Amino acid sequence: MLLEVEHLTKNFGGLSAVNDFDIQVAEGEIVGLIGPNGAGKSTVFNLITGVLPVTSGRVMFDGCDITRRQPEQVARLGIGRTFQLNPLFHEFTVLENVTSSFELHPYSSLFDIFFSTRKYRRNEAFIQEKAHEILELVGLSEEADELAKNLAHGHQKMLGVARALATKPRLLLLDEPLAGMNPGEIKYSLDAIRDMRANGMTVLIVEHNMQILSLCDRVVVIGFGKKITEGLPGEVRANAEVISAYFGADYVC
Ligand SMILES: Nc1ncnc2c1ncn2[C@@H]1O[C@H](COP(=O)(O)OP(=O)(O)OP(=O)(O)O)[C@@H](O)[C@H]1O
Ligand SMILES: [Mg+2]
């Protein structure tokens, strides 16, 4: 397993936001983590990436215990993520938003940058080339020189994904990539995520839009911080407890 989360628990005062929660992701898989509002999905991401300290439990990445690592260390080890509120540099171009994410992999020293050495220029050319490849992957090539603030909402969300990809992750965590999108944007985003998987990316996706199920190998369902069930997308869609968690116990299909 690339990611193994065991007995993960996070208490905020009297509230148990995540409660004895387990999830695993194998290399090359797309795993969905779905659940209603306030279920604990983003908190799970914040615990995996070291943004919040765990109350108890363990996070293993590629066989290494990363439970108490700082977010920058987790990123360097190869876990990239997007955020639900999708922070971007709105006054920068799309391309600049991506190239600025390459900082985590500094190829140049300050000396190289200051004197614009040949090594620095070669690194810059490399970063530009890689950034264009990433924009191609998420379908934003034609918007490369556009200011981020001028993009449609769906394209802004995919720019957040592009920025995460620039950190060269082995595992990508996407927090509600479809939120607020219209049907056309959803289709475009699902296609882009499918392309990433075809390129060998391992992805854990948090969503409460059930359309995400169409691209997942496996799905884990969380409610009130606890795992409700997990299984193949078809199994999860038909699970009575999942239907009740989403629509209330009285819902009839
Ligand atoms: N920093 C915090 N301090 C206190 N409570 C928090 C904090 N972060 C999250 N919570 C609470 O923990 C619970 C889980 O929140 P979380 O954001 O993980 O849910 P979510 O599944 O991502 O929901 P959504 O679908 O609305 O994004 C909620 O009750 C939330 O109010
Ligand atoms: Mg959330």
Total beta strand runs: 10
What is the CATH first-level class name?
Alpha Beta
CATH architecture: 3-Layer(aba) Sandwich
Structural class: alpha/beta
Bound molecules: adenosine-5'-triphosphate, magnesium ion
CATH topology: Rossmann fold
Name of the CATH superfamily:
P-loop containing nucleotide triphosphate hydrolases
C-alpha termini separation: 36 Å
Give the number of helices: 9
Number of domains: 1
Mean pLDDT: 89
β-strand percent reads 15-25%
- Give the topology string: H per helix, E per strand: EEEHEEHEHHHHEHEEEHH
Largest sheet: 6 strands, mixed
Task: Please tell me about this protein's structure.
The protein has helices at 41-48, 71-77, 94-99, 110-114, 118-137, 153-165, 183-198, 233-237, 240-247; strands at residues 3-12, 15-25, 30-34, 56-61, 64-65, 79-81, 171-175, 202-207, 218-223, 226-231. The protein has 253 residues and is of the alpha/beta class. It has a single domain (3-247), classed as P-loop containing nucleotide triphosphate hydrolases (Rossmann fold, 3-Layer(aba) Sandwich). The strands form two sheets. The chain has a six-stranded mixed sheet with strand order 6-7-8-3-9-10, sandwiched between helices. Strands 2-1-4-5 form a four-stranded antiparallel sheet, with helices on one face. Strand 9 (218-223) and strand 10 form a beta hairpin. The chain is globular and about 60 Å long. The two termini are 36 Å apart. The mean pLDDT is 89. It binds adenosine-5'-triphosphate (ATP) and magnesium ion. The site of adenosine-5'-triphosphate has 13 residues, from strand 2 and helix 1.
